[in-house]
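Practice problem. Given the sequence and the SMILES for pyridoxal-5'-phosphate, write out the predicted structure.
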Amino acid sequence: MTSIPFINLKKQYELLQADIDRAVNTAVSATKYINGPEVGQLEGELAEYVGAGHCVTCANGTDALTLVLLAWGIGPGDAVFCPTFTFIATAEVVALRGATPIFVDIDPITYNIDPADLEEKIVAVKAEGKLRPKVIIPVDLFGLPFDYERVAKIADDYKLLILEDAAQGFGGVYGGKKAGTLGSAGATSFFPAKPLGCYGDGGAIFTDDANLAEVLRSLRSHGSGAEKYTHLRLGMNSRLDTIQAAILLVKLAAFPNELDLRQNVAERYERALVGVLPFVPAVPGGRLSSWAQYTIRVPADLRSATIESLKAAGVPTMIYYPGCLHLQPAFAQFGGRPGDLKKAELASNEVLSLPMHPYLTADEQKRVTDALLEGLASAASAAG
Ligand SMILES: *Cc1c(COP(=O)(O)O)cnc(C)c1O
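Answer key:
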């Protein structure tokens, strides 16, 4: 039996092939491989799409986060609040700057940062008096924009900056505002598996702050000023390749339709699974998910057996994420212990992401949900 692809980049390429091949050939023959005209054009179109004043592209989503922290001067002695249930890059960039990531629990329904726990953690850091609270990095996990209203209120009350990690959220919407614009700055990623992906690594930062945008443009190019070999500050080599920009221009044009298709796929999953599984993804009113992932929950003790039987039926699944960041060896210096952030820890033991991409067919989805329900039932009876 042939396997269903978890994401189907080949199908997407086949549909866009004529335009992508033409765009790549044009970029290659023009030989402006760094900062070619496609890069500026893409920045303009991305800024317009999300409704941001400025877009600064860079080499990847991790650098997008790093560049903003550099621009804001975040370093030793600063506290940066982020969810513990996310990809490591969200907090890695904080610790690499010498600042301290303060891990926050999640809302068990949305998987995003829990505003109540966030406020408790901010109050605790202030009371302890050792670190200066500076930044919140909320994540649009699995494509769902974070609870902007409550987090923005907290940021306002405690005078903190919001850096939105929209690596998975590109295309998502919160109350009419697009993901990437839900903070003082927003970072996104064009890693191939993200909702808008290129054919390698890529990233972008969105902001309405013209000064910040100017500093980011300098930082991504070794801190250079108006003259190329005058360096105003220490920076990075983090530019988006012209070829990737050319590919992204084609993919961005196809993106709104793909977002609609993803929405249809999510709705079909929901119809098959709601009421059958205890947890299917729920999108709070006023928000739209970009459906970077479709993540359900299964009982922790049945998860491995369920995954195995899905695999045998040709249905790939992924666990995003099998461990919380406060328990990762890389962050051991910050002293996280099992039981510290219980809702996130439970989620990491129960989550299971199903195949999700715009071109998933109803028949394929039926295969997924049939195999899932059979797998769960047989895992349950084996467990007695
Ligand atoms: C993918 C991802 C990143 C990093 O993006 P890269 O382009 O791979 O560097 C950061 N945060 C989250 C939540 C991500 O999913």
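Check your answer against the key. The first strand starts at residue 54 and ends at 58.
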